[in-house]
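F.,

This is the one I mentioned.
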């Protein structure tokens, strides 16, 4: 098969690699219909976090057709079109049943061989993969791919922030996760959605997904603008979808006392001011999104064409050109790049 490997910062190569095989009876092999580059992949690409190995197989978002299963797999079968989350889980333990599959005691990487490839071995397939009710039309594949991470992550951010009717929601971050958090807030019934963005193309997509207001200011100026829009109180619900110190500070300060911050940006060198948090009266909840918990609902909405999260893919590029997909996202020429097989 063809698959992407990262050799170091700025060095992504697509090479011939061995096809994955069933290693455990709980495995499945999936022929991918599409994959993509995640914003979190850019941390290593920019040299801001170390690679676990050199070279490292890349990618953790996937959707495709099951072509082989282990002897213990019962919930999916060969021929099913499936979507899975970036963490594999058994989906049967107490933690999974409570909706936190990313914290399953049995969890492991769902794409150990890298999902920026033609084929993928998925461990714990019964607990990790969700089959679509029928074979999807080709135009639905981008949205189903989005469900495997960025849609599910944005959705969890909105749920963690308790977005809902009669609430004003602010979204810090205009990448794919932030934009889909806007969509999630709309679907959850938010009365007002404030998207924080300085980029015209992302502002337009945010409005398409349901944003009612755009705030271009950042930091303290952004906080002041949100408070100006909310009678000086701040948002009821704020979603932090970046993972930097500035974004977390902005999210907490922009939220009213008694409000909720849902943080889903992968934190890098973020610290909390304990005394400031103590007096803020703000609830914090977040972390790696339990995408598996939301997949059945999200797949249903997509298959019924109620939502179109695949709109975040503004660059579609062949797998062999994965290096260009990384460059385009790194240079902010693309919101999110989809890789075709």
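My design for it:
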């Amino acid at each position: 098969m063809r698959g992407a490997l990262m050799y170091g910062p700025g060095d992504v190569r697509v090479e011939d690699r061995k096809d994955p095989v069933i290693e455990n009876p709980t495995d499945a092999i999936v022929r991918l219909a599409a994959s993509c580059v995640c914003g979190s992949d850019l941390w290593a690409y920019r040299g801001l976090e170390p690679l676990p190995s050199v070279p490292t197989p890349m990618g953790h978002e996937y959707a495709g057709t099951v072509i082989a299963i282990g002897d213990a797999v019962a919930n999916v079968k060969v021929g099913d079109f499936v979507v899975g989350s970036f963490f594999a889980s058994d989906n049967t333990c107490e933690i999974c049943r409570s909706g936190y599959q990313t914290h399953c005691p049995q969890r492991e990487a769902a794409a150990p061989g890298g999902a920026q490839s033609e084929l993928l071995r998925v461990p714990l397939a019964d607990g990790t993969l969700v089959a679509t009710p029928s074979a999807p039309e080709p135009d639905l594949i981008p949205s189903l791919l989005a469900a495997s991470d960025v849609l599910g992550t944005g959705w969890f951010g909105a749920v963690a922030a308790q977005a809902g009717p009669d609430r004003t929601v602010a979204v810090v971050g205009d990448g794919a996760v932030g934009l889909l958090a806007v969509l999630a807030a709309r679907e959850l019934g938010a009365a007002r959605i404030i998207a924080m963005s300085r980029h015209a193309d992302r502002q337009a997509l945010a409005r398409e997904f349901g944003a009612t207001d755009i705030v271009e200011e950042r930091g303290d100026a952004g906080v002041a603008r949100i408070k100006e829009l909310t009678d000086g109180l701040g948002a009821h619900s704020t979603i932090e979808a970046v993972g930097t110190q500035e974004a977390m500070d902005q999210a907490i300060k922009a939220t009213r006392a008694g409000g909720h911050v849902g943080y889903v940006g992968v934190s890098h060198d973020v610290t909390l001011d304990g005394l400031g948090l103590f007096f803020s009266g703000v609830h914090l909840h977040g972390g790696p999104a339990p995408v598996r918990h939301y997949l059945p609902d999200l797949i249903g909405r997509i298959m019924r064409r109620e939502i179109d999260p695949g709109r975040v893919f503004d660059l579609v590029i062949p797998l062999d050109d994965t290096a260009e997909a990384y460059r385009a996202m790194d240079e902010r020429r693309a919101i999110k790049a989809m890789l075709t097989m």
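The CA atoms of residues 233 and 256 lie 5 Å apart.

Talk soon.
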